[in-house]
Amino acid sequence: MDKGDEHPCPFRPYAVQSPLIRCCLGDQDYMRADLHIHTTASDGCWPPERVVSEVKARSIGLFAITDHDTVANLRQTEALARDAGLAFLRGVEVNTWLDGHLFHILAYGFEPDNPTLAELLRENRGKLDRASDDVIHNLIAAGYPIDLDDYLAYEYDRTRGGWKAYNYLLDRGFCTDIRGYFDNLETETPASILTFPHPAEAIAAIREASGTPILAHPGASLRDAGVTEKTLQPFLDFGVAGLECYHIYNDEATTRFCLDWCAHHDLLVTGGSDCHGGLVGRELGIPAVDTADLRLGELE
Questions:
Q1: Between the CA of residue 296 and those of 60, 175, 212, 238, 249, what are the distances in Å?
Q2: Pick from 78, 126, 234, 249: most CB atoms within 10 A?
């Protein structure tokens, strides 16, 4: 397979192990994979049909949707993937809060109807929605000329991506893009974000649902503290099963460290684009990872 100029992954430490992959490979030795994609169920621009179409167009054989704290588009995407002859892995990205920082825990291969995980996701989704309201209230308190009733009545097209406060402020001329939103408007953490569960609680719920918990994009989550044995050890203690070693926010040194750390602790290795459609400029299938780069164990 020729990856051309698609920033190919420089490492290939693992052989294919997952039965999910083996059943879809056919005569191929490996296939392209992207295990971190968002849809209109959270803040992505693409509905399930568009995701599957784009995945197939890029010759990605294995993919997962990992919406923030919701599985609303999961079953539809799974059915569309099956019809398209693609390997699909159930996923969701769970928000957690630890020591003043937001950490995302990716869950794969879980039972969507598990009551413990479903309740945690329901509570988290409510907090995410209230975070938009928090931003608007903070701006009003700071003197911005925002009509609260106008905001409360506001609705937006989900295929634009993002969330209510961002789209409202964009449409009312308070910002022109997502960078301007974060640089100038959401300058403090919304109060609702501070109440996300501890990573250990989320990991326990994922495991109760027969899922596999993975620490997402360590290069971003641990940007301030650095990706080291010391900063990763708590997540090992909390029960993570692996790391998202391949991500656009992981530079080559971080990727190598994460791979070595996972190998040393016999943990899983995942990777994905974190694509949101056109919202944040992360291209589907980048970094270019295939199944020979991953270690998925017995994920189904």
A1: 16, 41, 10, 19, 21
A2: 78
Residue 35 CA to chain centroid, in angstroms? 8
pLDDT on residue 6: 46
Q: What's the angle, vertex CA 158, arms to CA 152 and CA 163, rounded to 5?
A: 55
Q: In whole angstroms, how far apart are CA 52 and each of 32, 79, 247? A: 14, 10, 20
Distance CA 117, CA 120 (A): 5
Q: What is the CATH number of the domain that holds 150?
A: 3.20.20.140
**What mean pLDDT value characterizes the chain?**
92
Residue 278, classed as helix, strand or coil, is strand
Look at residue 222 and give its three-state secondary structure. coil
Q: Cβ(55)–Cβ(63) under 8 Å?
A: yes
State how many domains the chain has: 1
- Name the pTM for this structure: 0.91
Region for residue 169 given its phi and psi (left: phi exceeds 0; alpha: psi -120 to 50; beta: otherwise): alpha
Distance of alpha carbon 141 from alpha carbon 42, whole angstroms: 27
For residue 190, give the nearest of 165, 172, 154, 215 by alpha carbon: 165
Domain boundaries, position 114: 1-300
Preceding omega of 287 cis (within 30 degrees of 0): yes
Question: For position 152, what pLDDT does the model report?
Answer: 98
**Over the stretch 195-252, which tens digit does the pLDDT of each residue have?**
999 999 999 999 999 999 999 999 999 999 999 999 999 999 999 999 999 999 999 9
Rounded CA-CA distance 170/141 in Å is 19
* Alpha carbons 129 and 111: distance in angstroms, whole number: 24
Contact by Cβ (8 Å): 202, 106:
no
- Tokens 């506001």 sit on residue: 154
